[in-house]
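Priority: medium. Attachment 1 of 2:
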């Protein structure tokens, strides 16, 4: 074989190797180089959604085996995997999960509530519930002011504590937006709410027993003050079965008030640049709140079988878990650490106010 033939054979081998896909790209250098050069496909939801789904599955497994609140574990796992969002290919999928899954989850949550459940509560307890919620939101604003934080941090903490925990926090943050409140503050608020709700489910039934409350009073106290839906119902049944039934009605009434509160917040907020928008646009509700109302109306007119309601509750929890996990994965840990313990003051003050006001009304009205 001549030297020319050997050179041609070597060139053919190199050309054949270069034409192969990145099958030997064990450490991803070639793929990252393609992304940097703009030659790799862009705009795919899959990388972010796959990462979010894996993290959420891990949180669900840990919750099932160790009994921790699943939303809290979703936050912690998401924060631990925060480095994944350094890859821009994950951004679109994570943003999609944090927004779209959140909204669909809130819509599906509407199948848990009927207008009859609110009517059964009665006018006096309902008015007391509205007053408690108003005081709790006000405490959130006060806590934010004491901690030197933005009023939006107080609105988020107070509203989430007053209504239904993480679900309300996600809905309110969808209106507040990243321009007004950082994702780090949002993540820290979610952590505080989840921890407070988990502690409340354990402590509040014991305190209700110490205060000598009746089943109805204990159900009102627990349903009106514990943040998360499942934990409020669980705390009520931990006291007694009648208290659990009462706590369920009170808590679902709070969930039903999510839509009016979000609508009111939407009308009060200005545009991110500080200017008021047109009145007809400010009166327009977000589509997912309108859909939430529609689900409540549908469930009121055509009561759903227990199996469908249970499936809808599971789907809502799964979607909210994905939304929370994705939000945590997109949060900057350096900003989270810089905030310190003072950032938890709004949640703490709102939680204490919610319990104190609920106890007062339970002793005097119920």
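Attachment 2 of 2:
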């Amino acid at each position: 074989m001549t030297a020319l033939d050997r050179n041609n054979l070597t060139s053919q081998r190199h050309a054949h190797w270069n034409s192969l896909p990145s099958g030997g790209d064990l450490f991803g250098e070639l793929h990252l180089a393609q992304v940097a050069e703009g030659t790799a496909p862009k705009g795919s939801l899959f990388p972010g959604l796959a990462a979010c789904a894996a993290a959420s599955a891990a949180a669900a497994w840990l919750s099932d085996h160790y009994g921790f609140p699943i939303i809290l574990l979703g936050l912690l796992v998401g924060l631990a995997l925060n480095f994944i969002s350094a890859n821009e290919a994950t951004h679109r999928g994570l943003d999609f999960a944090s927004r779209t899954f959140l909204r669909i989850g809130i819509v599906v949550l509407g199948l848990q509530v009927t207008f009859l459940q609110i009517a059964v509560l009665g006018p006096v307890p309902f008015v007391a519930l509205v007053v408690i919620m108003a005081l709790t939101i006000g405490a959130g604003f006060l806590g934010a002011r004491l901690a030197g934080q933005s009023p939006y941090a107080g609105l988020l903490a107070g509203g989430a504590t007053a209504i239904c925990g993480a679900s309300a926090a996600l809905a309110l943050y969808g209106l507040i937006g990243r321009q007004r409140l950082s994702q780090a503050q949002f993540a820290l608020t979610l952590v505080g709410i989840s921890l407070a709700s988990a502690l409340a489910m354990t402590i509040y039934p014991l305190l209700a027993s110490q205060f000598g409350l009746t089943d109805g009073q204990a159900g009102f106290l627990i349903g009106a003050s514990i943040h998360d839906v499942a934990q409020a119902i669980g705390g009520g049944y931990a006291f007694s079965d009648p208290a659990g039934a009462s706590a369920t009605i009170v808590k679902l009434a709070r969930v039903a008030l999510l839509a009016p509160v979000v609508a009111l917040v939407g009308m009060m907020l200005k545009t991110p640049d500080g200017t008021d928008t047109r009145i007809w646009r400010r009166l327009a509700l977000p589509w997912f709140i309108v859909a939430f109302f529609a689900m409540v109306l549908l469930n009121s007119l055509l009561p759903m079988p227990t199996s469908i309601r249970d499936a809808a509750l599971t789907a809502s929890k799964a979607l909210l878990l994905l939304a929370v996990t994705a939000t945590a994965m997109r949060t900057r840990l350096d900003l989270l650490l810089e905030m310190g313990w003072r950032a938890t003051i709004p949640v703490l003050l709102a939680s204490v106010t919610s319990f104190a006001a609920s106890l007062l009304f339970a002793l005097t009205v119920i």
